[in-house]
Design brief:
This protein is mainly alpha-helical. The chain contains eight helices and no strands.
């Protein structure tokens, strides 16, 4: 017996899902404790619609996590295509810092769901993206050669600890990133 082909997702369902993700990203970045009902209300959907797409809070957070990390992974080679390696690295780091504001409030959920680096399918591609940026910088002489991308990731992980509610959170992230880049320069 042949299984029935799955129906394509209706456009309005995709739009609802995208709107939920967009609102959830903003709400969770503002307060990691944002409720699912508040997210649904601000997205203009019923709570049932939210649960149909994301049956648990963890499912919603993990979809945001995967989406945002994939964006960062895909961004690295695009930036290298339009900027010198050092500038591409700086711009990529700025995007990572932006992502850090979301991760601040939900890092425990992400860590528990992924088992840290050990079981996280996004870990390897993310480290590889850092490696691509580092290799390009080493090749043009702007960055030190032989830097371990996992060491850089450990340095970047401090960004998830900056409380976005602090008045100087963005400035603090910029200072930390400047220190990291200074340490990587040739």
């Amino acid at each position: 017996m042949n299984p029935q082909p799955s129906k394509p997702t209706r456009r309005d369902a995709r739009d609802n899902r995208d709107r939920i993700l967009s609102v959830a990203r903003a709400e969770l970045a503002a307060a990691g404790t944002a409720s699912l009902s508040a997210i649904a209300r601000k997205a203009g959907v019923g709570i049932g619609t939210l649960y149909r797409h994301f049956p648990t809070r963890e499912a919603l957070i993990m979809e945001l996590y995967r989406h945002d990390l994939q964006h960062l992974i895909d961004l690295a080679p695009r930036l290298l295509g339009t900027h010198p390696p050092l500038e591409a690295l700086r711009r990529w780091f700025a995007e990572v810092a932006h992502y850090g504001r979301l991760k601040f409030g939900v890092s425990e959920v992400v860590h528990a769901a992924t088992g840290g680096a050990a079981e996280d399918p996004m870990y390897g591609p993310f480290v590889d993206a850092i490696g691509v940026l580092l290799a390009a910088g080493a090749a043009d002489g702007s960055l030190k050669p032989g830097i371990d991308p996992e060491d850089v990731l450990l340095q970047l992980s401090v960004l998830w600890r900056i409380d976005p509610a602090r008045g100087d959170a963005e400035a603090r992230a910029a200072r930390i990133l400047a220190l990291i880049v200074d340490g990587l320069r040739a």
